[in-house]
Amino acid sequence: MNYDVYGVGNAIMDLQLRCDDDFLDAIGVEKGVMTLVEEAQQNAVLEALAAHAPHECPGGSAANTVVGVADLGGRAAYAGKTGDDAFGRRYLAAMRELGVVIEAPPARGQTGTCVVLVTPDAQRTMLTHLGVSATLGPEDVDAAEIARAQYVYVEGYLFAGESTRAAALKAVELARAQGVKVALTVSDPFIVDLCRDDFARLIEGRVDLLFCNEIEARALTGLDDPIACARELHRHIANVALTLGRNGSILMHENEVIPVEGVEVEAVDTTGAGDMYAAGVLYGITNGLSWKQAGHLGSHAAAQIVSQLGARLPRPWTREEIEALLD
Fold first, then answer.
1. Kind plus residue range of the DSSP H or E element containing 12
2. E strand segments, 38-167
3. Distance between CA 57 and CA 322 in Å, rounded?
4. 32 Rama sector, left if φ>0, alpha if ψ -120 to 50, beta otherwise
5. Confidence bin at 34 (pLDDT 50/70/90)
6. H or E element that contains 8
7. pLDDT in tens, 50-101
8. Rg (Cα) of the chain, in Å, rounded?
9. Looking at the DSSP assignment, which residues form a beta bridge with residue 212?
10. What are the CA-CA distances from residue 254 to residues 184, 258, 295 (Å)?
């Protein structure tokens, strides 16, 4: 079996809960970003919101994207580390049921978890305990599997840890050596500040497609205007996908600025919206769509995610549905 996308990222079980801004203030976390926390802090939050049952979903940024590729009809594989616990067993079973090939063996210890707090304005605030996902290493990246993919997709969060950073760089190295294209998602503005030198080296000739939002693009370039940011990144990277929230996105391909309008929906939860946008673009460009069409598909898929709780499409989309949507 060949793959459209081979993803490399943290294997994290998402536990989604609703709360208000006062609760975020009370627990002292920054709204709208991902914060690494200890298990005890997660447990305290879950206990404080014990009246509400969490919505459980196997996640992680790159995992969300490869599942999205599979749900759109593509073929996907994933390298992520789970624990030999109940969360880990449920994670692997769910990913495989969704059609994603995932072969990295479980490790002794706890599967990573992320408490996702969704406020009434649909913003998501993430409290992540990495667990054994932090032990993902170069030995978990399969050269033969990468050789069967059109794209390797790497999440920026991996650069926050020594072992996971080595796994990400190994995947990039193997892809480049075997003629497989490399896509990188920045993941979070704090990653830019933490790993600027790594990103600078990757951007100079080792990444074929960069995904980022406008805050991340500003952090990378030092510029303010999104189009100026996209143009500056495109000087170094063959293809750029810069998301603008409800205002859509900008694609850069062969020196052309390709604007993609957003899709108006009533926002419920923004968790995974950027991941699903990336899934739409990656599925499109590996399955015969133009860059413009791939951007449109990404926008519609992201809009579906924003309009519901959780980072998964309610059901897979057929090729006929995708073609009708693009028409």
1. strand 12-18
2. 55-59, 76-79, 100-102, 112-118, 124-129, 149-155
3. 25
4. left
5. confident
6. strand 3-8
7. 988 898 889 999 999 999 999 999 999 999 999 999 999 999 999 999 999 9
8. 18
9. 242
10. 18, 10, 15
Instruction: Say how many domains are in the chain.
Output: 1
Q: Which residues have a Cβ under 8 Å from the Cβ of 288 and sit 6 or more positions away?
A: none
DSSP 225-269: SHHHHHHHHHTT-SEEEEE-GGG-EEEEETTEEEEE-------S-
- Both structure tokens of 192: 């830019």
Q: Which domain holds residue 278?
A: 3-9+62-109+135-326
Matching residue, tokens 């390298």: 79
Query: How many CA atoms within 13 Å lie on the side-chain side of 174?
Result: 25
- Residues linked to residue 252 through DSSP beta bridges, in sequence order: 240, 257
Cβ–Cβ under 8 Å, residues 95 and 78: yes
Please report the pLDDT score of residue 188 as a whole number.
85
Q: Tell me 107's DSSP state.
A: B
Provide the CATH number for the domain around residue 104: 3.40.1190.20
Structure tokens at 246: 């409800």
How far apart (Å, rounded) are the C-alpha atoms in residues 36 and 22?
Answer: 20
Instruction: In whole angstroms, give the CA distance from residue 73 to residue 287.
Output: 9
Phi, psi of 240 (to 5 degrees): -130, 135
Give the span between the Cα atoms of 269 and 16, in whole angstroms: 10
CA distance 301 to 318: 13
How many Cβ atoms are within 10 Å of 75's Cβ, its own excluded? Answer: 22
Q: Which residue from 211, 210, 231, 209 is spatially nearest to 221, judged by alpha carbons?
A: 231
pTM, to two decimals: 0.92
Q: Is there a domain that residue 234 lies in?
A: yes
H or E element at residue 204: none
The DSSP H or E segment spanning 3 is: strand 3-8
Residue corresponding to tokens 């390797």: 152
b/e sequence 117-127, b meaning 16+ C-beta within 10 Å: bbbeebbbbbb
Instruction: Give residue 299's identity as a one-letter amino acid code.
Output: S
249, part of any domain = yes
